[in-house]
Amino acid sequence: MVSRPLLSTFRPLLLKCMYINIQPKSMELTDAVKSYCEEKFHMLEKYYDHIEEINCELGMTSRKHNKGSIYTCTGHLFVPGKDFYVEKQEEDLYKAIDKVKDHLQEMLVDWKEKKRG
Q: Do the Cβ atoms of 20 and 37 come closer than 8 Å?
């Protein structure tokens, strides 16, 4: 008889999964940018472990701008019963991603503390 592990031993792993959807808009999504986004947004799980989904949209607002390209990053984070939305613009795409992640983190922590009451 083959011994199989109980499903309950795997249940915490199944419940703790967050889906990150990254969509480029008027720009090409490179592997480096995708990995950077995933790494940054996975850090949010430290602050609340029931995050269901994060939608991230990356784009350039204008190809012919006086000071160069302006990048936009929007983040839409979903938790049970609440969702958070942030949009930031920067001259550097990575800075925009960092600012969105930081703002979502602040909003998530504030909401969690209010909920705890």
A: yes
